[in-house]
Amino acid sequence: MLYKSEFKTPIGTLGLLANKEQLLKLSFKGLKDITEEAKEDKSRFKLLFRELDEYFVGEREKFSVDYLVDTSPFAARVYKEMVKIPYGTTMSYSELARKSGRKLAYRAVGTTCGKNPLPLIIPCHRVTAVNGLGGFGGGLDTKRFLLNLETN
User: Fold this and answer.
1) Among this protein's residues, is 124 annotated catalytic?
2) What mean pLDDT is predicted for residues 1-20?
3) What is the pLDDT of residue 137?
4) What does the pLDDT look like over 45-102, one tens digit per residue?
5) The predicted structure's pLDDT at residue 41
6) Residues 18, 85: one domain?
7) β-bridge pairing 91-92 and 127-128
């Protein structure tokens, strides 16, 4: 059984998808991006709603919700390293590639960031280009907002 819900934040309405135990998807486009057949159920997401509220007022640096990402072994390593990037800091695509075991795979790291099904939870907004912000699936204004939130 899958569950979905929306959650309003300072960066817009997020779409959420989960099974009984794990979060599967977080979308910056609300439920428009959640195409899976799922039951709308706000109660399933109570913990995540609380944690998102805490994050957006600067009281939470990491999320405790359990999640599942079905991906390649390389992308799994990238996501594992990405979760370790401390709140309020950034890491370059090339540094993340090195930490993920493939130092020349910075473009693949960028692609992996772009395919991240759980932005915020897996903090891809903390990954930047050596000479600037780089890209972001939620848009550069959102990336700037999140980085500013975490550093102020």
Assistant:
1) yes
2) 97
3) 87
4) 999 999 999 999 999 999 999 999 999 999 999 999 999 999 999 999 999 999 999 9
5) 94
6) no
7) parallel
CATH number for the domain that contains residue 84: 1.10.10.10
Ordered alpha helix ranges (H), 13-138: 46-56, 73-83, 93-99, 106-114
Contact assessment for residue 76 and residue 69, using Cβ atoms and an 8 Å cutoff: yes
On whether residue 67 sits in a domain, the answer given is no
- What is the C-alpha to C-alpha distance for residues 3 and 41, in angstroms, rounded to an integer? 6
Kindly state whether residue 66 falls inside one of the protein's structural domains.
no
User: Which residue is associated with the tokens 């992308």?
Assistant: 75
Query: To which H or E segment does residue 110 belong?
Result: helix 106-114
* Bridge partners for 42 per DSSP: none
What is the pTM (predicted TM-score) of this model? 0.92
Of residues 124, 127, 146, 147, which has the active-site annotation?
124
Looking at the DSSP bridge assignments, the partners of residue 5 are 16
Query: Do residues 29 and 17 touch, judged by C-beta distance below 8 A?
Result: no
